[in-house]
Specification:
The longest helix is centred in the middle third of the chain and has 5 residues. A hairpin with a 2-residue loop joins β4 and β5. The chain starts with a strand and ends in a 5-residue tail after the last strand. It is built from one helix and five strands; from the N terminus they run ββαβββ. The strands form two sheets. The protein has a three-stranded antiparallel beta sheet with strand order 3-4-5, with no helix packed on it. Strands 1-2 form a two-stranded antiparallel ribbon. The chain is mainly beta and about 70 residues long. The relative contact order is 0.19.
């Protein structure tokens, strides 16, 4: 497992709070990476990162897919 330690810079409301599609954009500075030794021993190309795009869209290196939100 690993975690990023961040320092909050600012938050910005996107859309009208409480309405569909609204959210809060968080801007933060990464100040440290905490990781188990087993994670650091792996090659970066084996990590298989996932990125959150928008709505229900996510991406992996070379692929974009939809992941419905829980009800």
């Amino acid at each position: 497992a690993w975690a990023l330690e961040c320092r909050l810079h600012s938050t910005h409301q996107v859309g009208t709070l409480g309405t569909p599609g609204s959210s809060t954009l968080i801007i933060a500075e990464i100040v440290a990476l905490h990781a188990e030794q087993a994670v650091l021993a792996r090659r970066p190309q084996d990590w298989k990162p996932i990125a959150r795009l928008h709505g229900e869209a996510y991406a992996q290196l070379g692929a974009v897919y939809e992941l419905p939100r829980p009800k």
